[in-house]
Automatic annotation (TrEMBL):
Main location: membrane
Listed SUPFAM superfamilies: Nucleotide cyclase (SSF55073)
E.C. number(s) listed in UniProt: 4.6.1.1
Official protein name in the record: adenylate cyclase
Transmembrane segments: 217-237, 243-264, 300-322, 376-396, 416-434
Provenance organism: Euphydryas editha (Edith's checkerspot)
C-alpha cells in the first residue's frame, strides 16, 4: 500500500491509485478515469447503464457495488493516516458518499456486513468458516417473496403477512413470536361503543354490524305473527265485530303470513321452497329466506310494516263499537215549543276496554321481539305506539263508560285510560331496558368475534413467519418434517442418499480482493460485494429449473450446493437417469454461476473467477445442533467434491472420473486432466467439463 500513483484527470477528478496487489483492479479503474477518455465515459460506465435499464431491482446492487468498486475505480487512497479521501467530487454517485472535505461517508446498503446471502443468509466474517441457512423451497414462493431475494428480510415489511400485524423489523417478528398480549386483555367489552346509542365509534364496524345477515329474523317474524293472532283472537272474542275489523285484520294476517313464508323459505326447512325460481335472487342467495336474512333493508321494511299493521289493528275498532242514538228533546219557551234532537253515542261492549289495553301490550311486545332491529328504532316505534294508543284511549267514550261502570269498585279512583297508559309506559320502559341490554350484548359479541378473527389471523401470520424462518434455515422438506412430524424429538434427523451430486464453487481471487483497510471500512465494502455475488447466486436457485438444487451453505467465498436431496423422490426415476440428471443440473448451475459472475465482473470492473469442484455418490444428510440448527451433508462424496474444488483451476469445472463418465453419458464433453494428487485419496484421474467460453477465460 505504500506505492501510490497520483493523477488529475481532464474532468478534474483526482486519481490516486494504489500500485499493489490490486494492480489489475486499479488498472481497469485507472483506464476509466484516464485523461484520454472523454468526460461522459468516465462515470458511470455504460455497462452499468444497461444493467440498470435491464432490471430495476438491480439498481441497489449496482449502487452497492459502486461502493466497493469505487474503492479503486474512483481511486480512493489512504493518505498518511486513517483519513480517507474521495477524489470524485464532481461525479459522486451519492452525495453522502463524497463530502466536500473529501471524506468518504458511504451509507451501509446491507442490513449488516456480516449477513451474506438472501435465500440463506449467513452470519459470519468474510473469512472462511461461516454457518449458513438454507433457502426455502420454490413452492413457498410467497414466503420467498416476503423474504426477498436481494437481501435477507428485504421485503418483509411489504408482505401481506407482515402488513397483517405491522411488522417493520426483525425485532418485531420476535416480539410477535412471543406475544405478550392475550385475548383476556380485551377486558373492556364496551370499548369502541357509543354510550347512549351503543353505536360503534368506527363507522366501518357499524356498517359491518348492520349488514350482518340475521339468520334469526324468521323467528322474530313468526313471533310477531303469533302475537298478532293472539291479539286478533282477543279482539274477536271481546269487541264488537264490524266490517272494519275484518278489513284490517284480514290484510294484516295475509301480510304477516307472507312475511313468515318469505323469511322461512331459506332452504333449511325444506317444505316451503320447491316452487321458487332461482332467477329471483342475487348475490348467491337462492332462497327468499336467505335474501331476507342477508339484506338489512328488507328486514327493516318488514319489521316496520309488521309493527304498523299490528299497532293499527290493536286500536282500529276502538271507535266502531258504538251506536249513535237520537233522543228528541222538546224545549218550551214562552211563545213556542221546539223539538230538538240530542245525539248520544253509546258504546257497545263496554267490558271490552281491557282488550284494547291487552292489544297495546301485544303491540309493544311485537316490537320488542325483533331483537336485532336496533333499540333506538324500536324505542321510536314504541313511543309512537304509546302516544297514539294512549291518546285514543283517553278520548275514547268506551274507556269513559268503562270507568263509569267501574266506579263502584274500590280501586277505580283514577280514570281507566291514564291507568292503562301508565301500564303501557312501564311496559315500554321495561322492554326498552331489555332491548338495550340485548343490543349491548349483541354488539359486544360482534366486537369479540371481530377481535377473535384478528387474533386468528395473527396466529396464522405467526405460523407463516415460523414457516418462513424455518424454511430459510432448513430445506423445505426438512422444515416440513420439523413442523409436522410426530416422530420422537430425541431422534436425530437424518437422510441417507445413495447418489447425490455435490458442488463446491469458490472464488479463489476473492481473497486477493478482500482487504481490511480504512478505505473499505475494514473489509466492509469487500464483504458487501461478496454479499451481492452470493445474493445473485441465490436468485438463481429460485428458477424452477434449479428447484432440485439445495444450497447447503457458503464457506467464505465458497458456495456449496447439492442436488438430488429429495427424500422419497429417489425411487421415482430410473437410477441412471436420476444420476445423470442430478450431476448435469449442477453443471448447468455452475455454468449459470459463471455467467452471473462474469456479468458482475463487467459491472464492477473485477476479475473474479469461479473454480468449481463436483462429485457424486452417497452422502448422509442431517440436522445438527439445537440452537441455530444446521442442515448439512457428510461423506466421502462431499470430501472429494471439496478436493475437486481446491485442486481445480479457475474458470473450470473439475470432476472425478466417475462423475465425468456420468456427464459424458449425459452428453457433456469432458477433457481428461490426467492424474491429480488429492489429499487423503492419493492420485486420481480427474477431468474438466467443457463449458462455453464464459468471460473469455483468464
Ligand atoms: N459438510 C461439509 N461442509 C464443508 N466442507 C466439507 C464438508 N465435509 C467435508 N468438507 C471439506 O472437505 C475437505 C476434505 O475433507 P477430509 O475430511 O477428507 O479432509 P481433512 O483432512 O479433514 O480436511 P483438511 O485437510 O482440508 O483440513 C475438507 O477441506 C473439508 O473442509
Amino acid at each position: 500500500m505504500s506505492n501510490l500513483k497520483l493523477g488529475i484527470s481532464e474532468n478534474g477528478r483526482l486519481s490516486v491509485c494504489t500500485v499493489d496487489r490490486k494492480a489489475s483492479i486499479v488498472s481497469s479503474i485507472y483506464q476509466d478515469v484516464s485523461p484520454t477518455k472523454p468526460k461522459e465515459n468516465i462515470s458511470p460506465c455504460p455497462s452499468q447503464h444497461s444493467f440498470v435499464d435491464q432490471e430495476g431491482s438491480k439498481v441497489t446492487r449496482v449502487e452497492s457495488m459502486r461502493n466497493a468498486i469505487d474503492l479503486g475505480r474512483r481511486a480512493s487512497v489512504k493518505v498518511d493516516g486513517p483519513k480517507t479521501v474521495a477524489f470524485d467530487n464532481n461525479n459522486a454517485t451519492n452525495p453522502g458518499e463524497a463530502l466536500g472535505n473529501g471524506a468518504v461517508v458511504s451509507k451501509p446498503k446491507s442490513r449488516s456486513g456480516s449477513i451474506i446471502g438472501a435465500i440463506s443468509p449467513i452470519m459470519g466474517t468474510a473469512t472462511p468458516g461461516v454457518p449458513t441457512r438454507s433457502r426455502p423451497s420454490s413452492k413457498m414462493t410467497k414466503y420467498v417473496e416476503c423474504w426477498g431475494a436481494d437481501k435477507p428480510f428485504a421485503n418483509i415489511t411489504d408482505s401481506t403477512l407482515a402488513k397483517n400485524i405491522g411488522i417493520s423489523s426483525l425485532a418485531m417478528i420476535e416480539q410477535h413470536l412471543l406475544p405478550q398480549r392475550t385475548c383476556c386483555d380485551f377486558s373492556n367489552n364496551s370499548e369502541g361503543l357509543g354510550r347512549i346509542t351503543l353505536g360503534f365509534k368506527n363507522r366501518e364496524q357499524e356498517r359491518q354490524y348492520r349488514n350482518q345477515p340475521d339468520g334469526q329474523f324468521k323467528y322474530y317474524v313468526a313471533c310477531a305473527a303469533t302475537l298478532f293472532l293472539l291479539l286478533a283472537f282477543i279482539q274477536l272474542l271481546t269487541v264488537h265485530k264490524s266490517v272494519i275489523i275484518y278489513a284490517a285484520f284480514g290484510p294484516t294476517l295475509i301480510t304477516l303470513l307472507v312475511f313468515v313464508y318469505l323469511s322461512w323459505s331459506d332452504g333449511r326447512s325444506g317444505i316451503l321452497l320447491s316452487d321458487i325460481s332461482d332467477d329471483l335472487y342475487v348475490d348467491n342467495c337462492s332462497k327468499p329466506g336467505q335474501v331476507v336474512a342477508k339484506n338489512c333493508y328488507i328486514r327493516l321494511t318488514m319489521f316496520v310494516i309488521s309493527v304498523i299493521l299490528i299497532s293499527t289493528c290493536a286500536v282500529i275498532n276502538l271507535f266502531q263499537a258504538y251506536i249513535i242514538q237520537d233522543f228528541p228533546i222538546e224545549r218550551k219557551n214562552s211563545n213556542s215549543s221546539l223539538n230538538e234532537t240530542f245525539i248520544t253515542i253509546i258504546p257497545l261492549f263496554v267490558d271490552s276496554a281491557p282488550s284494547y289495553l291487552y292489544s297495546s301490550v301485544l303491540t309493544l311486545a311485537s316490537i320488542s321481539v325483533f331483537l336485532r332491529a336496533g333499540f333506538v328504532l324500536k324505542l321510536v316505534l314504541m313511543l309512537l305506539t304509546l302516544i297514539i294508543h294512549i291518546t285514543l284511549f283517553t278520548s275514547a267514550e268506551l274507556f269513559i263508560q268503562y270507568q263509569n261502570q267501574d266506579i263502584v269498585t274500590e280501586d277505580s279512583m283514577y280514570p281507566y285510560a291514564p291507568k292503562a297508559g301508565l301500564v303501557l309506559v312501564f311496559l315500554a320502559a321495561l322492554l326498552h331496558i331489555l332491548d338495550r341490554q340485548i343490543e349491548f350484548t349483541s354488539r359486544t359479541d360482534f366486537l369479540w368475534k371481530h377481535k377473535l378473527k384478528f387474533e386468528q389471523e395473527e396466529v396464522e401470520t405467526m405460523r407463516g413467519i415460523n414457516k418462513i424462518l424455518l424454511e430459510n434455515i432448513l430445506p423445505a422438506h426438512v422444515a416440513q418434517h420439523f413442523l409436522t412430524s410426530v416422530a420422537s424429538k430425541d431422534e436425530l434427523y437424518h437422510e441417507r442418499y445413495s447418489s447425490i451430486a455435490v458442488m463446491f464453487a469458490s472464488i479463489p481471487n476473492y481473497k486477493e480482493f478482500y482487504d481490511e483497510t480504512d478505505v473499505n471500512k475494514q473489509g466492509l465494502e469487500c464483504l458487501r460485494l461478496l454479499n451481492e455475488i452470493i445474493c445473485d447466486f441465490d436468485k438463481l436457485l429460485l428458477k424452477p429449473k434449479f428447484s432440485g438444487i439445495e444450497k447447503i451453505k457458503t464457506i467464505g467465498s465458497t458456495y456449496m450446493i447439492a442436488s438430488g436431496l429429495r427424500p422419497g423422490k429417489e425411487e421415482q426415476i430410473d437410477g441412471n437417469t436420476k444420476e445423470e440428471h442430478t450431476v448435469a443440473i449442477l453443471v448447468e448451475f455452475a455454468i449459470a454461476l459463471m455467467t452471473i459472475l462474469d456479468q458482475i465482473n463487467r459491472e464492477s470492473f473485477q476479475r473474479f473467477k469461479l473454480r468449481v469442484g463436483l462429485s457424486h455418490g452417497p452422502v448422509i444428510a442431517g440436522v445438527v445442533g439445537a440452537q441455530k440448527p444446521q442442515y448439512d451433508i457428510w461423506g466421502n462424496t462431499v470430501n472429494v467434491a471439496s478436493r475437486m474444488d481446491s485442486t481445480g483451476l479457475m474458470g473450470r469445472i473439475h470432476v472425478t472420473e466417475d462423475t465425468a463418465k456420468v456427464l459424458m453419458n449425459a452428453g457433456y464433453t469432458c477433457e481428461c486432466r490426467g492424474p491429480t494428487f488429492v489429499k487423503g485419496k492419493g492420485t486420481l484421474i480427474t477431468y474438466f467439463v467443457k463449458t462455453p467460453n464464459i468471460g473469455g477465460g483468464l
